[in-house]
Structures are given as structure tokens and as C-alpha cells.
Design goal:
By secondary structure, this protein is an alpha+beta fold. The protein is built from 5 helices and 8 strands, in the order E-E-H-H-E-E-H-E-E-H-E-E-H. The chain has helices at about 30-35, 40-50, 80-90, 115-135, 175-185; strands at about 1-10, 20-25, 65-70, 75, 95-100, 105-110, 145-150, 165-170. The strands form 2 sheets. Strands 2-1-3-4 form a 4-stranded antiparallel sheet. The structure holds zinc ion.
Length: about 190
């Protein structure tokens, strides 16, 4: 049995209920779920919540953010675990953090060593098409906001966006247009 628990945040009123939500999969295999990228499980939960017509308990918005996913009480996304996989398997990785405070947008990022420009551009392209694939209405603008993304490449075919796996993608408070501006390749160079 698989026990999938998570915290729910609201992208409209910014409140969290502080109590974990849980889905049980009677015939699920925990070992298989532990290998999944967190973002893949987030998409599953989003679909289940849509079917269940889940709403924020404070403001009734359905624009909900899924946080801290755990499989049988063990966190699914662990930066240290993923970076050690990258090191031992010579994979590229890329993480991006965007903070918004009023009109000011600040960007931080991290990469695996020796990442070349072609791989960097593929990572940006992967994030960009991911942002495009999400419904615009879920990007509600607020005074403050944050976006965090983490992706890993395939050991052999690092610059094929098809083979880049997104492990983490969370966002609130920032518009789709502002995220797309940050991802524009003209601001980036691996150096
Ligand atoms: Zn709310």
C-alpha cells in the first residue's frame, strides 16, 4: 500500500491548513513511487484533487499548491540525494529560484560542474515548455512570490530536452509572463 501525504497551500489567499492531506493507493508499490520525481506525483495529486473538487478551506479557491510530498512518511524530493546521484552518474542538474518582492524580481540558480551552454539552453527550454503547459489562471500575482525548479539530465543525452526530468516545480505569487522573462535564453550564459 502506498500512503501519499502532502501539505496544501493556497495560491489565492496564501494560507495553509497545517494538516497533511493523504491519498492511499491500496495496490500501489511504495518502492516504485519512491523513485518517481516529486513533480510527477504532484501532477497526479492535482488530478485527484480536481476530481474531488478540492477547495481552499479559507477562501474556496481551487488554485492549490501541493507541498512536501511524502511516500509512506518519507520525503520524495531530497536535494542531497539527487545531487549525489548526479555526481555518481555524471548527470547535469540545474536549479532555479525566483523571488518576487513588490516590483523587484531576483533570480538565483545552481548547476552541476562543467555544464556547457547547450545543456543550459536545454534546461531553460524544458522549464519554459513546462510553464507553458500549466494553465495561466494558476499563476496569480501577489506582492510577494516564489518559483523553484529542479531538473536532472540523462547521463548520455544531456542536451535533449525530452530526456531532462523535472523533479521539483513549485510556484506562487508570480505571473507566467514574469517567469517566462526570467527563462529567456538571452539573459543566460554558462560562461
Ligand atoms: Zn485560499
Amino acid at each position: 500500500m502506498v500512503n501519499i501525504s502532502y501539505q496544501l497551500g493556497c495560491r489565492h489567499c496564501f494560507r495553509t491548513d497545517g494538516v497533511p492531506s493523504v491519498y492511499f493507493l491500496a495496490d500501489g508499490d511504495p518502492a516504485l513511487f519512491r523513485k518517481k520525481p516529486e513533480y510527477e506525483v504532484v501532477r497526479l495529486i492535482e488530478n485527484w484533487q480536481k476530481q474531488d473538487k478540492r477547495k481552499c478551506q479559507f477562501c474556496t479557491s481551487q488554485n492549490l499548491e501541493i507541498l512536501e510530498v511524502k511516500i509512506n512518511d518519507k520525503e520524495l524530493y531530497n536535494f542531497d540525494r539527487l545531487s549525489s546521484i548526479c555526481r555518481s552518474q555524471y548527470r547535469n542538474m540545474f536549479n532555479l529560484n525566483i523571488d518576487k518582492k513588490g516590483d523587484k524580481i531576483s533570480v538565483g540558480h545552481g548547476t552541476s560542474p562543467f555544464m556547457d551552454n547547450a545543456v543550459l539552453l536545454s534546461m531553460l527550454s524544458k522549464f519554459s515548455s513546462l510553464v507553458d503547459s500549466v494553465d495561466s489562471s494558476s499563476f496569480e500575482e501577489h506582492e510577494t512570490g516564489n518559483v523553484f525548479m529542479f531538473a536532472m539530465g540523462d547521463p548520455e543525452f544531456n542536451n535533449d530536452p525530452e530526456l531532462i526530468v523535472v523533479h521539483k516545480f513549485k510556484y506562487h505569487g508570480i505571473t507566467k509572463e514574469d517567469i517566462k522573462k526570467v527563462l529567456d535564453p538571452k539573459h543566460w550564459s554558462a560562461g
